[in-house]
UniProtKB/TrEMBL annotation:
Keyword match Oxidoreductase: no
UniProt source species: Fusarium oxysporum f. sp. cubense
Annotated spans, Disordered: 106-138, 278-316
C2H2-type domain residues: 188-219
GO MF assignments: zinc ion binding
Gene3D superfamilies xrefs: Classic Zinc Finger (3.30.160.60)
InterPro entries on file: Znf_C2H2_type
This protein's name: C2H2-type domain-containing protein
Ranges that cross the membrane: none
Signal peptide positions (record): none
Keywords: Metal-binding, Zinc, Zinc-finger
Keyword Zinc set for record: yes
Polar residues biased stretches: 106-120
Amino acid sequence: ALLTPLQDHPQEQNLYCTGCGKGPFVRVGGLVSHVEKECLILNTNMIETMREEKMEFSQALTALTKEPLKNNYGGYMPENANRGLPDATWESTGSIPAPFTIEQSQFPSLGESSSTTLQPTKEKKENSWNKGKNLFPDAPAAQRPTLEQLKQVTAPSARATFDLMSDLDPKHPDFNVARFYSEYTQKFNCRMGRCGKAFKTAKGFIAHLTSEAHSASRYRCPYCLNTFGSLASITQHVESNSNKCKIRDTEQYNSYMDQLLASMVNVKDRHADGTVRYETSKTFGKGPSPGSDLVEQKENPKVNGGDPYTGMQIHW
């Protein structure tokens, strides 16, 4: 649902980086771009890790309550956006359609003609599978696997992930920047597709390979379904209204931004003119994230093998 019409140009924000303190940034996209390229404390990997932890917690809560997860935008994030359009419904039901079955009596005999028209059968034969003995009467009934179990068994192995990586990727173990240096031009030449760009320094060339120009990450806007190669570009897109995309006017915008940036920036009501007002989280990037091992160790010292009541007098 769309909210009341807003101004096309949002008001300037007053945002500061919670990692290094740099600011103010007048746009959320500017803050995210700083985190991607400049900040020595925060980075996009931290945002993506915290986003995954928050989604895992939500999925675990869904499994306990048996209630569908509303406003779930995990299908639009990099790990899923590359697999095509997400499901039409955003709620994860975990249900699997019943398998297609065909009765044995519907198969034609070997002597029949090759006509594809099914011939009516005079009598229905019994299913011989039902005549067998129950060898394990006490065994529990078979359960269909959950959606999470299916994801685990179909996830690519470490070897498969290695094989899918290109040696043009700076993260690849066999990546060698010297292979791209030309003695003739005395520059590093990009061989990605038809790019052909050249750089004087190895640092500039590697920055180009890891930039949005050749990024493997893809964020998809849940409103207009356009894809973007970096967290900064998708943030700039959803932050600024356009004639084709009005996600900022929807009621789900707050939830989407919270998941996209892993609560680094919170939507705090609106300005007097109706435009969105943002506020940076005061705790983001400071200390362990929710659900991490450090939090568990702090809340339950027995995780480390210690006794939280050592040296204390306990009165019953």
